Amino acid sequence: MTGVRLSLPNQRSLLVWGVAAVLLTLAIVLGMQPSIVWLALLGGGLGAAALLQRPALGLPLLMVAALVVPLEIGTGTQVVLNPAALLVPALLGLWLFRMAVVERNIAWVPSPVNQPLLLFLVASLVSFAVGRLTWDPFVPISANFWLVQMAQWSIFAFSAGAFWLTANQVSSEAQLRQLTMLFLLVAGSIAILRMVPGLGGPLNRVTTVAFIRAPLWVLLSALAGGQLLFNRGLARPWRVFLWAVTLCSVYFGFFVNRDSSSTWVGIGAALGVLIWLRFARLRLPIVVLALALLAAGVLFPAVYEFAGGDDAWRSTGGSRLALIGRVVEVTLRNPVTGLGPAAYRPYANMKPLPYLGAYWVAPLINSHNNYVDLFAHGGVLGLALFAWFAWEVYRLGLRLYRRYQEGFAAGYVNGMLAAGAGSLVIMLMADWILPFVYNIGFPGFQASVLVWLFLGGLVALERMTDVDPKR
Description:
The chain has helices at 11-32, 36-53, 58-68, 83-103, 114-133, 145-169, 173-194, 200-206, 214-230, 236-256, 261-278, 283-295, 299-306, 309-331, 344-348, 370-403, 407-426, 441-463; strands at residues 73-74, 80-81, 353-355, 358-360. The protein is an all-alpha fold and 471 residues long. The protein has one domain. The protein has a two-stranded antiparallel ribbon with strand order 1-2. Helix 3 (58-68) packs parallel to helix 7. Residues 1-10, 26-30, 35-39 and 466-471 have low confidence and may be disordered.
């Protein structure tokens, strides 16, 4: 008698069938009782099923969502979410689920940058706990203020999450190149089209606010410039396109959006770093020229007038110093661990703020400085941990700079060194890279998350073994 051999379905098949059953159930429920919530769940389920099968789609999806999905989602508080902010934890959850359940192998790419970043997130939670336990009872807060504080911590966590997603999920030069070129193609094309008269308004309706935020333009100009200056194998059509992108970025920052000094300062810093890295022979003449202009009293007045002169200083510069002073003043209540995420706003609003004869009776305080914000959120501890993380990213970039001298990898490394430097500069001018939930917040996160995502590419590049430095 011939026996019949039955083969049990493997774990991947069970997972696929399980997801299919859940989606079918949601479809039936949606048919009986139409609802936006159920429709969103169905769409999310379909997306999760696709990403479980093709996890490589996650990072391009996040990038595109940050650029061209202008959707805002209310939370019942002053915090407004968007698809890019929601995709980060979703992609992290799917990645961990896939490793634990499907692959049964939880692997984390080791890197010196991981420890300070993880400790920064833990320290922020400690600051939250200490701040709540030592809260001044005379400073009023709403019952759901802890949600606002958790939203602020989520911005920290989602930024780190985007960094780790790229670091762990990009496994080849080809994948990193595709992700980079997709960003340059989408963001660069929109940047060029925005310069065409009459197209700015229609494009604003189909793109996110990332395109009016400084981090996007810093990243775009840095990555485009990096490929132009260091990738000698770049095809002619790409070279022409990236020249157009770079010129449009400079034109937008220095002329169209000149009032936003963060944009042109950041672009200038990024391109300046690229020139410094590419043309070693020009370094000494550049330093000598800068010192000569400074000594002659020309450099500072020229930059000051370009930035708006006395009018700009009275309207924004001096007032920001007053705001910074107030934030530092209230944070000295606990300078070691700070007041906790987003906690400085209630403390700083407790008394009027005088400035140039004006009296702001009911101020809504933002420091407009990322470093001051980090000090207020997490004290000296949080600020020091972030500085440690930035230092490790810089060291990583230098190791890769020495390793890759040409080709896509060289262009990427130098571009991200420039983007990192530009990001650190614009952090002095606003909460651009780790947005304050009450100011730039989750809308601005759509721009900053892209910087974190591509910084993670440096970690991915370091652990690759299939990258030929000569390519």
